[in-house]
Amino acid sequence: MHIDPDSNLPSDNDKLLTNLVVPRPIAWVTSQNALGVVNLAPFSFFNAVGSNPLDLIISIANQDDGSLKDTASNISSNGEFVVNLMK
User: Fold this and answer.
1) Contact at 8 Å (CB) between 71 and 31?
2) Distance between terminal CA atoms of the chain?
3) For residue 25, what are the CA distances in angstroms to 8, 42, 65?
4) What pTM did the predictor assign?
């Protein structure tokens, strides 16, 4: 099967990817803004990519208007976040 993502709507590509890559554990990412407001968001697109140094990747989409979501904004502002996993 050949899939050309450029010929699909982004929402169709998202549905395809999320239905093909299973199971996807959920990472709960906690971040904090400059005012101290805590944000907790679930992410199913994340993975460990290295152990020396410890590297973790999370994929944070933008808002529909192109602006950063709270998690991305918070991490960009202070460089800190916490990832919790459910078993």
Assistant:
1) yes
2) 34
3) 26, 10, 28
4) 0.75
